[in-house]
Amino acid sequence: MKKQSATSKTKVKKAPKEKFLFECAWEVCNQVGGIYTVIRSKVPSVINKWGPENYCLLGPWFEDQASAVFDPILDPNDPILEAVNIMRGNGFDVHYGKWIISGRPRVVLFNPYSVFDKLADIKFKIWEHHGISLPADDDLLNQVISYGFLMEEFFKTMLHQKNFGYQAIAHFHEWMAGVPIPELRRENLDLKIVFTTHATLLGRYLAMNDTKFYEHLPFYNWEVEATKFNILPLVQIERAAAHGSHVFSTVSDVTAAECEHLLGRKVDSILPNGINIKRFEALHKVQTLHLDYKEKINEFVMGHFFQSYSFDLDNTIYFFTSGRYEYHNKGYDLTLEALARLNWKLKEANLDRTVVMFFITRQLYYSFNPEVLHSRAQMEEIRSVCEDIQEQVGKALYLNITAENGPYKFPNLNELAEDYNLLKLRRFIQGWKSNKLPSVVTHNLKDDAKDNILNFLRTSGLVNNKEDKVKIVYHPDFIAASNPLFKMDYGQFVRGCHLGIFPSYYEPWGYTPLECLASGIPSVTSDMAGFGDFVINNIPNHQEQGMYIVQRRSNNFHETAENLANTLFEFAKLNRRERIALRYRSEEASQQFGWRILREYYDKAYEEVVKR
């Protein structure tokens, strides 16, 4: 990818009136994974470029997801509605309206179940025309194939509308939206096609199962490997979409090599993922928000750890990692090894610092650990009694002061509190204190014995011993405001932490470190993640801006773990003033990743596709 200034501020050049952009993705109005964030966050900047009248998104209609964020459009003069009505007349269930997000873009949503009776014919056509044989009993694949068929019908209908009159560009994201591309090319429609793979399907499987994925990448036989993982039809669809597009793109140089070897085509454009900065922007409130949400994390930490032993919260910093549970791909294995080394380094240096590390991911579990919940509930009871005593003593002290006639003598505060509350507090504390070690995991996992994170912690002895400088909290579910342990949403939790750790082995882009940056939180990622690779090539002095990159490409596992441990150790040594200054620099640095700037890569891809 050619180096482009990430800080350049160019005046937005409006798209010509004669061009129309359709953006197609399985995650339009359908929150499943990372593509949803990409599409949703990009919309305001796209509308700023194209205008609301030259842009429309295409997605699937799942009523439970879409109905809450969808308002129908009923304008009879709208050419898109005219095409939708024609499709409805042909028996297809199609919905047209506005997506209730920033920018209020127009969307056409197709109900895949409405053509399930045609699946046999749809699949036969795909096999007859493109040689892809599709199984009959895969429900997700059936939905995707039906969605692709309906998009194909929409474009055929739309482009034959006399009052449409635009040069149409269609941008398809991922294999699930790319199903109609081969047939659209076969029909020779006047439609310029961009296809973006955000991560190849086969690459993700291979990386999870081969610790030397990148070294072996040039030597894989894609068909043999796809058959082994039982995903051959899906990979064939992805390859057909890549080869059928006019412009083939991906999100990073890291993934570009993967595409060339596994999909058999070099990418034409790199389209890095940006972020909607306004959603995170806090300006002078960055530090205030951090303190507010850190206090909530403090409450959890007190309830979780202090029943067994305590430590100084003023000298405690919070690290976290989050994402899908892909132990090797997400770098959880590397993070754990580095934390074990960090624990040793902190003890050897006798540094007055405690690190609490949170693993926020999703694993199957039965329920919250009842002891963890009970401890938190007991803490709430202790807090309540303390507040009662505080109020009672405050009133009694005030009365004592105002009633005193002679030289004032400060009273014994113990005598101002009622014996009932003091006894109640003593009983609560005695019932709460425990000789057990604080639990590492907050839930009862369904397969505790086979969990890689827990097994590493047990083997390494990193199990929240009192003398350990690094404490672990493994929370096998995503954080939401309804969570009884944290009582805040994920974004607030991130702001309350001090450092995010994401040293991925396989990460086509990586939104989590970027979201940290926008929240004013420094983070660590790797040069094997698309975001990390982009930072190395485009952002000078990135470490001073809160973007730490560990080198995985040129180092072995143990060298990288040692380097990561050293990075964490140096961060732990920062004093509060230094951390605050870094927090502000991080938030400021995130401006370089706003869609207003990174959308330029998309603009160039659209200019290129029109020429082809």
Describe this entry's structure for a reader:
- With 612 residues, the protein is of the alpha/beta class.
- It folds into three domains: 19-276 and 597-611, Rossmann fold (3-Layer(aba) Sandwich); 277-368 and 439-591, 3-Layer(aba) Sandwich (Rossmann fold); 372-400 and 411-432.
- The chain is built from 25 helices and 17 strands.
- The strands form three sheets. It has a nine-stranded mixed beta sheet, sandwiched between helices. The chain has a six-stranded parallel beta sheet with strand order 14-11-10-15-16-17, with helices on both faces.
- The radius of gyration is 28 Å and the shape is globular.
- It starts with 18 loop residues before the first strand and ends with a helix.
What is the percent of helical residues? 40-55%
How far the N terminus sits from the C terminus, by CA atoms, comes to: 20 Å
CATH superfamily of the largest domain: Glycogen Phosphorylase B
* Gross morphology: globular
Low-confidence stretches: 1-10
CATH topology of the largest domain: Rossmann fold
**How many distinct beta strands?**
17
Count of domain modules: 3
Structural class: alpha/beta
Write the layout of secondary structure elements.
Layout: E1 19-24, H1 34-50, E2 55-60, H2 63-66, E3 70-72, H3 79-89, E4 94-99, E5 106-110, H4 119-130, H5 139-159, E6 167-173, H6 174-178, H7 181-186, E7 191-197, H8 201-209, H9 213-216, H10 222-228, H11 232-244, E8 247-250, H12 253-263, E9 269-270, H13 277-280, H14 286-305, E10 316-322, H15 332-349, E11 354-360, E12 365-368, H16 370-403, H17 413-416, H18 419-432, E13 443-445, H19 452-460, E14 470-475, H20 490-496, E15 499-502, H21 511-518, E16 523-526, H22 530-538, E17 547-550, H23 557-572, H24 576-589, H25 595-611
Parallel strand pairs: 1-2, 1-6, 2-5, 6-7, 7-8, 8-9, 10-11, 10-15, 11-14, 15-16, 16-17
Antiparallel strand pairs: 3-4, 4-5, 12-13
Helix pairs in contact: 3-5, 14-16, 14-20, 15-19, 15-23, 16-18
